[in-house]
Amino acid sequence: MDVQELVGNLGISAGAAVSVVVSTTVLYLSFIVLTRSLGQRVLAGFSGFDIVVVIVLGAVLGRAILGHSPTLAAGLIAVVTLLALEGALGWMSSRPRWERLANNAPVLLMAGSEVLWRELRRTHVTESQLRSRLRQAGIRSDAEVAAVVLEPTGTLSVLRRGEPIAPAMLGGVRGAERMPPGLLGT
To answer: For residue 129, with 0-12 CB atoms within 10 Å meaning exposed, 13-18 middle and 19 or more buried, which class applies?
Structure first.
């Protein structure tokens, strides 16, 4: 490889740079829309198969973003674009007005000992995933559960019976109105 070929591999034309920015932005926004529509569980608790899918997805997205002949400059432009988009999404997430667009709302999956089956199906959480998280929290029976919430991050939070739950703890949780009154504090 001569010096001229090396310089050509590092450079990028203005049109190609715009193409990288546009394709990066479209793919980023598409990914956000798809993960929001599939629910927050898609981003948590990867199985072995999920890890393979993520690797393949990364390879496909990388190739689609960088184009036919990837260069160092195209890679740098893609990274800067992704970080700028992530920064913009972070900024939006910190604003109450835009937070709903950027993040999924937390969802109540168990209200007391009642499993909310419709919410499990809608959020793509299986009963075995729910039971696994209950066991990890040291729950021995449904009677010990005050609430289970699917958080925006995809994790499951388990609240035990005992002390009443402050209503503020369930603020913004979809389905919180289904909580048995005896489990809530004032």
So the answer is: middle
pLDDT digits 0-9 by tens, 13-48: 878 888 889 999 998 888 888 777 766 666 555 666
Q: At what angle are helices 72-93 and 14-38 packed, to 10 degrees?
A: 40
Tokens at 130, concatenated = 């729910």
Q: How far is CA 153 from the centre of its chain?
A: 5
Instruction: Name the pTM for this structure.
Output: 0.68
Instruction: Name the nearest CA neighbour of 79 among 129, 131, 127, 17.
Output: 17
Give all domains of the chain, ordered by start, each with its CATH number: 3-102 (no CATH), 107-183 (3.30.240.20)
What's the pLDDT tens digit per position in 65-120?
887 777 888 888 889 999 999 898 888 878 777 766 667 789 999 999 999 999 99
- CA separation (Å) from 24 to 31, 85, 117, 120, 161? 10, 9, 38, 33, 47
CB contact set of 127 (below 8 Å; sequence gap of 6+): 115, 120
Spatial CB neighbours of 34, under 8 Å, sequence gap ≥ 6:
none
Q: Using CB atoms within 10 A of its CB, is residue 42 exposed (0-12), middle (13-18) or buried (19+)?
A: middle
Query: How are beta strands 156-160 and 114-115 bridged, if at all?
Result: unpaired
CA distance linking residue 44 with residue 54, whole number of Å? 12
